Amino acid sequence: MGSRASSLLREEDIDEIKKETGFSHSQITRLYSRFHSLDKGENGALSREDFQRIPELAINPLGDRIINAFFPEGEDQVNFRGFMRTLAHFRPVEDNEKNKDMISGEPLNSRTNKLHFAFQLYDLDRDDKISRDELLQVLRMMVGVNISDEQLGSIADRTIQEADTNGDMCISFSEFTKVLEKVDVEQKMSIRFLH
Amino acid sequence: MPKKSDTARKLEDVGIEIDGDVESAEEDKKAKGKGAKKPAAGKRGKAAASEDGEDEDEDDEPPRGRRAAKKKKAAQADEEESDDDIPQRRCAGNRRRGKVRESGRDGDNEKSGRKNKKGGKKKKDGKGKGKDKENDKDSDKDEKKKKNSSGDDSKSDEEEESMSEGEMAKLMEEVEEKKKLIANIRNKPWRMRRRLKVLKEAQQFVDKFEGALGKGKGRKLYAYKVMMMKKWIKFQRDFENFRTSCIPWERKIKEVESHFGSSVASYFIFLRWMYGMNLVLFSLTFGLVVIPEVLMGLPYGSIPRKTVPRAEQATAMDYSVLTDFNGYCKYSVLFYGYYNNQRTIGLLKFRLPLSYLLVGIGTFGYSLMVVIRTMAKNADVGGGDGEDNEFTFAWKMFTSWDYLIGNAETADNKYASITTSFKESIVDEQENQKDENIHLRRFLRVLANFLITCTLGGSGYLIYFVVKRSQEFANMDNLSWYEKNELEIIMSLLGLVGPMLFETIAELEEYHPRIALKWQLGRIFALFLGNLYTFLLALFDEVNSKLEEEDSIKNASLWFVKEYYANYSANNPNDTGTPPPIDPADIIRGPCWETTVGIEFVKLTISDIQVTYLTILIGDFLRAFIVRFLNYCWCWDLEAGWPSYGEFDISGNVLGLVFNQGMIWMGAFYAPGLLGINVLRLLSSMYYQCWAVMACNVPHERVFKASKSNNFYMGLLLLILFLSLLPVVYTIMSLPPSFDCGPFSGKERMFDVIMETIDLDLPAFMGTLFGYVANPGLIIPAVLLMVLAIYYLNSVSEAYQNANMELKKKMQLARDEEKNRRNNKDSTNQVMKDLEDLLPNNSRPPPSPPENRAEKKHDQGGKSPKVKPGTAGGGVHLQKDVSLASANPSARGPVTRAPGPRGPGPLPGQPGPGRGQGPPPRRQ
């Protein structure tokens, strides 16, 4: 299966993806076979249902948000390029890349981009701000009915209060970045793709 | 655009470029070396690095999570493959490698292109430092390209060989270069930090690739080294996994924690710790005392102390007798009295009495050491990262879910634990915000403490009074049932009422539940000490009476033996041989107070176990059962209403455990088997209580977060250890052992066995040596020395504390600096981009999406005032004409991170004197 799948991938495509995402050749072919096996419709693109079949995403309270992140706005199909573009956020930052960062602009797996990916999970309406309502929705996904609405509200308020620096009662990306400043995002948001 | 500044900028730029470029060129080279030359090795190296990093990250997570992650992302091949199939691939998978190599080449092309640009710039500058090198390298690459261009995907072995030769040459050159760099690093006009970094990198590079250069043997050795390195890393990972999975009950405890909060989990962690310690004590005692006695000692029935007396033999096997630990139980290896006072036993000449005493002392020594060490370690943990949690809720909000969870059950646990942790934080928060009436609160607290002190004093007096009365009663006959059992009844009533009373009074104080728990523990502990006191008092009374009794029996026993022999020779005058020995069951026995004490402790432990387990069964299980199933046919809602489900009683359980351990410590010397019983008890109660808590209890109304260290529990334990140490040491040092039972029979004092060993087994000079050591003239200075040492260590630790505080402050500063730098990075990057756009042959991927940029701008806009110092630091050695630049020369952190392009690109909204030329010329 793997070899057949990878044969469907053209070399130029691979090269382009490689350039865009920084994955190695074998990683791309490997991920392509994975992509292929997820693609139940066999039409070269993944739908939301395809993603929901992944158990980790199915049980994840934020699973829907993660799946959404794979899809460009307004579309419900994602092709391999898009798939890889999203996955590239999770590529570990390698030592020899750190310096290159400075020269070649930001690769998809830079700290900022990783954080931005996480930010988007919470930013439901994609207005680059996490509002109280959005926080509440996410909280409900995370704790269900075990905590009263009132307390959830106060949690959301507290969260915003902690993070908000400019007083607009929303968390912007920069504030989000500041909150997670001490979190080792480079490490935590990295997946060890096989080489 | 003013020309002057432009050229100036270029100059600066180039100057920086050189600084930054050597590094990046090196990096490139390294990448090439990794990516193209030795695909396998490079891959391995990378994989190893990333694995290492991952390891750190994933250690905390259950192995399963890791597996899930693999499953999720690792396509079809598992990790084994990637680790092990590389050598295979090297010889067989040519096609694939070809591709990889091609990609490497592509990368080279790109890089060389970029390098050319830089080289060009350098030429302009006239410095041309790395020019020749560059050219060489480029030509080298060209050569290689030519070589490679002939064959595409189908690569022959020969080609591979030639290519690797070419690469070999290059690698050789690079290594040489690095070596040169190492030699010359002193002369480079760099900052120290940078120099060190470069030096380190260069050395690593040389170490890594020097081996690869050798032909034949050296290369094989290198390959072998790489392989071994890989194997070693893999082994370490496996070992780490293994170690994590070896932590007993980790999952059980995590499960409890996720549903009941860290406070309940802390009890189970304490229980587990206790189990570990008891296991060590158990193996010590059984390995050095019980097993040798069983294997090598005299068998049962050979001597009086190992035989059930004739009078008891009829009932010795009765169940009721055995459950009282009399009969065969009493004359078994479980108790002190069974051991013989033979100096050595068996072929190995095992010195059992000595071993018995040393193990008894060693038990305490080990326990003390472990408790204190654990406390010290916990204190360490506490100081680590407890401070500054300014974003508690935000962190919980954004980072609590573990995205590697792929199992529904684990996910449930995670849900529960997130909920619990939110609840914990809410409680903490509520406590923090409560500050209405501080005076009232203070008054209430003082009142509560006053009340509790009164209660404690009252119960203390009550105990004292009752004990006195019971001593009077002991001398009287025809007592009523109440009078006989008065002490026990009062004690258990106190134990029942006291904690409840304390809890009620503690309501007044309105402490945070975590602190309230500590107070509660401390108070109940004080109350229970009374219990302990009465118990010990009763025991000492018994021991004293037995000691008195013993003297007379000793005479009777001796007289009996003498008479037996006299009778024997009188009855059989013509038998001149030795008379047949007396049946050991018939000899008159002393009371053997040690065994009595041992039996008391064992009985106490057993009854404690029974009470605990029954309480759980009735108080928790039955209650939960009734509430659950009778609820269908009851007039009010049982679950929400009065009986409801039980909560897990942390304070009671912890104290139970602590006091039980005290009993074990005290009793273990007189009943070596007690440790075995205790190990079984802890083991079973782990499972039993875990089950009970999950099945029958509900989480506390206010789930609170336990303090990170269990040090309060440990402190209680230490206190109990000390208290239980006293009576045992007292008996060892000052009570005479029984004359006819136990390993020390026939000696004045138990510790005489040590003197005996010194005299008989050690060379004579050792005896004199010990004699000197035991001299008060030496002991007093030794004590003084210890006091001095304590004083010294104390002041040293204080000094360390101060140093710690300083370091913390420094860390905070460093963090701030880092913050600034990170904030600056965006702007740096933007400027970089602008620069890149200017350059020809731009082969890099399209710039990141525009919203990114917008954010960055916003970022800078919002933060520019804060950012200033960092910026200045960044520009410090390139922009001498910028007034900001020299403002903060100490912040040189950013310089190491390719400060170059900040020169030309001003921060938007911060036009400096020399760089106020508006937006960078990107849009030309």
From TrEMBL, chain A:
Q: Which GO terms describe its biological process?
A: protein transport
Q: Which GO terms describe its cellular component?
A: cytoplasm; nucleus; plasma membrane
Superkingdom to which the source organism belongs = Eukaryota
What are the subcellular locations of this protein? Cell membrane; Cytoplasm; Nucleus
Q: Where is the EF-hand domain?
A: 26-61, 110-145, 151-186
The protein's matches in InterPro entries, at most eight in alphabetical order, are given as: Calcineurin_B_homologous (IPR051875), EF-hand-dom_pair (IPR011992), EF_Hand_1_Ca_BS (IPR018247), EF_hand_dom (IPR002048)
This protein's record includes keyword Phosphoprotein: yes
Keyword annotations for this protein, in alphabetical order, are:
Calcium, Cell membrane, Cytoplasm, Lipoprotein, Membrane, Metal-binding, Myristate, Nucleus, Phosphoprotein, Protein transport, Repeat, Transport
The molecular function terms in GO held by this entry are: calcium ion binding
Give the similarity note. Answer: Belongs to the calcineurin regulatory subunit family. CHP subfamily.
- Give the protein's recorded name: Calcineurin B homologous protein 1
From TrEMBL, chain B:
Q: Which GO terms describe its molecular function?
A: mechanosensitive monoatomic ion channel activity
Which intervals of the chain are annotated as region Disordered? 1-167, 812-831, 836-924
Q: Where are the transmembrane segments?
A: 279-300, 354-372, 446-467, 487-508, 520-540, 663-683, 712-733, 769-793
Gene Ontology CC: plasma membrane
* Keywords, ordered alphabetically: Membrane, Transmembrane, Transmembrane helix
Instruction: Identify the domain of life.
Output: Eukaryota
Composition-biased stretches, type Acidic residues, lie in: 14-26, 51-61, 155-164
Give the bilayer topology.
Answer: Multi-pass membrane protein
What family does this chain come from, according to its entry?
Belongs to the TMC family.
- This chain belongs to which protein, by name? Transmembrane channel-like protein
Organism this protein belongs to: Carassius auratus
